[in-house]
Amino acid sequence: MANGKHKVVVVGGGFGGLHAVKHLACGAIDITVIDRSSHHLFQPLLYQVATGGLSSANITAPLRAVFSGLAGVKVRRGLVTGFDVEKRLVLLGHDAVPYDTLVLAAGTESNYFGHDEWKNEAVGLKTIEEADEIRRRILLAFERAEWEPDEARRRMLLTFVVVGGGPTGVEVAGAIGEISRATLRRDFRNIDTALARIILLDAGKRVLPAFPESLAAKASAGLARLGVTVRTGCVVKGIEPNRVVVAARDGEEVIEASTIIWAAGMRGSSLGKALASAAGLAVDSQGRVPVQGDCTVAGHPEIFVIGDLARFGADPGGPLPALAPVAIQQGHHVARVVRRRLAGRGSHPFRYRDGGIMATVGRSMAVVDLRFVRLAGLVAWLAWLFIHIMYLVEFEARILVLVQWVWNYFTRNRSARLLSSCGPEH
Amino acid sequence: MANGKHKVVVVGGGFGGLHAVKHLACGAIDITVIDRSSHHLFQPLLYQVATGGLSSANITAPLRAVFSGLAGVKVRRGLVTGFDVEKRLVLLGHDAVPYDTLVLAAGTESNYFGHDEWKNEAVGLKTIEEADEIRRRILLAFERAEWEPDEARRRMLLTFVVVGGGPTGVEVAGAIGEISRATLRRDFRNIDTALARIILLDAGKRVLPAFPESLAAKASAGLARLGVTVRTGCVVKGIEPNRVVVAARDGEEVIEASTIIWAAGMRGSSLGKALASAAGLAVDSQGRVPVQGDCTVAGHPEIFVIGDLARFGADPGGPLPALAPVAIQQGHHVARVVRRRLAGRGSHPFRYRDGGIMATVGRSMAVVDLRFVRLAGLVAWLAWLFIHIMYLVEFEARILVLVQWVWNYFTRNRSARLLSSCGPEH
Questions:
Q1: Neighboring chain B residues of A76 at a CB cutoff of 8 Å
Q2: Whole-angstrom Cα distance, residue A237 to residue A254?
Q3: Which of the ends of chain B has fewer CB neighbours closer than 10 A, N or C?
Q4: For residue B210, what pLDDT is reported?
Q5: Average confidence (pLDDT) over A74-86
Q6: What's the total number of domains in chain A?
Q7: Least confident of A197-206, A320-329, A392-401
Q8: Is A49 a residue whose pLDDT tops 60?
Q9: Residues A256, A161: contact at Cβ < 8 Å?
Q10: Are residues A106 and A193 in the same domain?
Q11: Residues A254 and A133 in one domain
């Protein structure tokens, strides 16, 4: 490897890492991408996998395949265990990978706000494995309810609680509404799936706090039409098997629910903290690494942190949100800075071009704030669909996802509702 | 449930069970389908899932969705634990489902011929879970080889052994050949994936013993072109982690291989034995339940056994082979007999209409014996493709699988090569 080329190590193959590599790659730079999984995940559609609308393979692309045409790019599937910023090494257990420039784009994980013991009961939605687990629980709840003689237990089985009213919570709750009201309706004989209770809990005043109030109100109305009960001002106090305890305005309350989904918040990957400590810095309350105007870490111009794991800027309006477009633009920015430096020029500040935000509500409605215009309803959903398909990384996935969606749209079918076999314990 | 209707319980939602239900369903009969998984599996394409060409969802259909339009059909996901043939009950743990007619179509599982301890090392290919595990092992072997400094270990990682030269073994070995010689070739930097050794072991004289010798020879030649070494007359003596011990003509030999796939044989599901004992019968050496000319069990005209689990006929040429068309036709036959009996008429014997057999070798070759004509090469592959797509149960799956195949064919891509994240243990 001592070929004299500039060595860039990118940790994380999400939107930030992927776009950094794509724009950096050229024969003259040695790039190593390290990720603990082997694929890039199109996270905005993960809720579709969790609710049986798409298969895992539809929204993932093998990192090796994505980078196979790019000269000088190596992919390594492995678990980063730490950093040595003095010797400029990324540590993987007993192994170490040297770098001249480090790009940390390791993303976030679910934040249980000090209650990691809730993790088993309330599954987060950040990885393919979690999406598969949520799908398994949702489908299994209907299966069990179909043959459950006890009415109270049946009611518990058919209650789904989604914690967190951001875009992910709204999208998951809406999709469960679709499943129970339309997709599964004809499939069961002993239960009426449309009687399933879907409860979206949020501690704040309204859902979608990042959106204009008018759009949030329309999203709430859309959720209600899908049978989702939105309960704002509800703080979760405890989560146990099949039970959520909430403190609402009028005291404590227990909700019996077989399926609990956690979409209440994110915190930076533990690699952020590891890097920050190594560089003599501290992460913020959400575990994000503070970065400077050019996305580098103070005192280490050779270290970039980008995407959801970076805390970029403070004013006006606080740090940049955890959105794919931010990560993509920062990845592109890092590539530009590294290239400029290699050409002997200095770095320049990152500026976010805000294209807007969007969220879907069920199968034919979305709310879209493009900043210059606000849309809600079918038109917004079509805009959402178009933008998401255009973003998809691999050509094939794009076509297949489109075919599958068009089909699902007209048939209300969800072919990917696969449930694994039951073992001896049922 | 005591509505006076005739009660049919079908155990197993494979080809036999599915077609029995489809042809039986009408408002006048109460049908309960019990399966330990929630989906019908299109088993002939399972090897494509194991080798990353298709996703699980492409070749499965939720049983509830398949039967949702049919009156009087209930689906129950559960584990059958036994039978009470006197009281006419199917037992599910503490629960029991009564029947007037029982159709047992529980299929087969991998047969390790008294060496069940080989199961962990040599994965069979009967279920979606096994296919996922085989895919994981194949992809992981390449990932590990890419960063393995030791040459002997790298050679071991890049050695794939397939035990059994029937259609499944030939198809899996050919697909691994495709992957290593074409799909993955550009994705790795440190290893040449085309140097992977793929060894197909069979104890007999040649591969595809059920096929005419001329077609088997063409299949062998096709495998050789894909880099597969076919070794006939090789008896497996032992399987340990990363090692296969074989007794060949010239003594014992150890093959070091990271990935071992078991396609050497099938035996009837343990439910066959449970039912046979309850009915005072014995299963044959492959665990199959002997059935009479109308597919019923001796002494129990109300019990049918169909598909791979049934041993039907003995001459000429031995019992019927374990093929989807046999199961499909027997399912149809059972439906006809039950309907005739309800109309006050007797049963009639089953006759198999043999449409032929086929197997693929890689991405553009197959061998097809349609009895009136024998084909090998691209034409055979197109025939194979056409027939398999037409068989697929759900319309959507059919279209999507076709799109994906056409895409894969022209790009040699395998988008479904998804590998889950590595945990702390790597």
A1: 146-147
A2: 10
A3: N
A4: 93
A5: 96
A6: 2
A7: A392-401
A8: yes
A9: no
A10: no
A11: yes
pLDDT band at A385 (very low <50, low <70, confident <90, very high): confident
CB pairs under 8 A between A and B: 143
E strands in A4-141: 6-11, 29-35, 39-41, 60-62, 73-77, 82-84, 89-92, 95-98, 101-104, 108-110, 122-123
Beta bridge partner(s), residue A104: A11, A305
Q: Are B65 and A187 in contact (CB < 8 Å)?
A: yes
- Chain A contact present for B214, CB below 8 A: no
Measure the CA–CA gap between B200 and B174, rounded to whole angstroms.
Answer: 9
Chain A residues in contact with B78 by the CB 8 A cut-off are 147, 422, 426
pLDDT above 50 for A424: no
Q: Which residue has the higher pLDDT, A231 or A419?
A: A231
Whether residue A256 sits in one domain with residue A120: yes
What residue of A is the nearest CA neighbor of B30?
A: A189
Chain B residues 61-80 within an 8 A CB cutoff of chain A: 61-62, 64-65, 68-69, 74-79
- What is the residue range of B215's domain? 116-264
Q: Do A69 and B187 touch (CB under 8 A)?
A: no
CATH number of the domain where residue A258 is located: 3.50.50.100
Contact A85, A206 (CB under 8 A): no
DSSP state of A421: P
Find the closest chain A residue to B68 by CA distance. A187
Q: What is the CATH number of the domain that holds B75?
A: 3.50.50.60
Asked if residue A43 is part of any domain, the answer here is yes
A352 to chain B, any CB pair closer than 8 A? The answer is: no
Q: Which residues of B touch A146 (CB under 8 A)?
A: 76
| For chain A, percent of residues with pLDDT exceeding 90 | 76
CA distance A209 to chain B (A): 32
pLDDT of residue A386: 81
- pTM of the prediction? 0.86
Which residue among B55, B143, B413 sits closest to A38, beta carbon to beta carbon? B143
Sign of CA dihedral A131, A132, A133, A135: positive
Among candidate residues A264, A296, A323, the one where a domain is terminated: A264
Per the DSSP assignment, residues forming a β-bridge with A379 are none
Per-residue pLDDT, A412: 60
Q: Is B233 on the interface with A (CB under 8 A)?
A: no
Whether B407 is covered by a domain: the verdict is: no
| pLDDT above 60: residue A112 | yes
A63 near A12, Cβ under 8 Å?
A: no
pLDDT for residue A426 = 35
Distance CA A210, CA A233 (A): 16
Pairwise CB contact (< 8 Å): B62 & A417 = yes
* Whether residue B178 sits in one domain with residue B126: yes
Mean pLDDT of A64-85: 92
Whether B70 and B199 share a structural domain:
no
| pLDDT score at B339 | 94
Residues A152 and A66 in one domain: no
Walking along chain B (426 residues) 10 residues at a time, the average pLDDT comes out as 84 96 90 94 91 84 87 93 97 96 97 94 95 94 94 97 97 95 89 95 95 96 96 95 89 94 96 96 95 96 97 79 94 96 92 93 91 93 83 58 64 62 48
- Smallest CA–CA separation between B127 and chain A, in Å? 9
Sorted by sequence, the CB contacts under 8 Å of residue B321 that are 6+ apart come out as: B210, B357
- In whole numbers, what is the pLDDT of chain A averaged over residues? 90
Query: A62 and B146 in contact by Cβ < 8 A?
Result: no
Structure tokens at B309: 């689990």
Contact residues for A371 (Cβ-Cβ < 8 A; gap 6+): A354, A355, A356
> Who among A77, A128, A147 is closest to B76 (CB)?
A147
**Statement to judge: residues B252 and B121 lie in one domain:** yes
| pLDDT score of A1 | 45
Q: What's the ipTM?
A: 0.79
Q: Which of B59, B422, B425 to mutate to test the interface with A (most CBs of A within 10 A)?
A: B422
Chain B: closest CA distance from residue A293 (Å): 33
In a domain, B386, yes or no: no
Chain A residues touching residue B58 (CB < 8 angstroms): 55
In this structure, are B73 and B211 located in the same domain? no
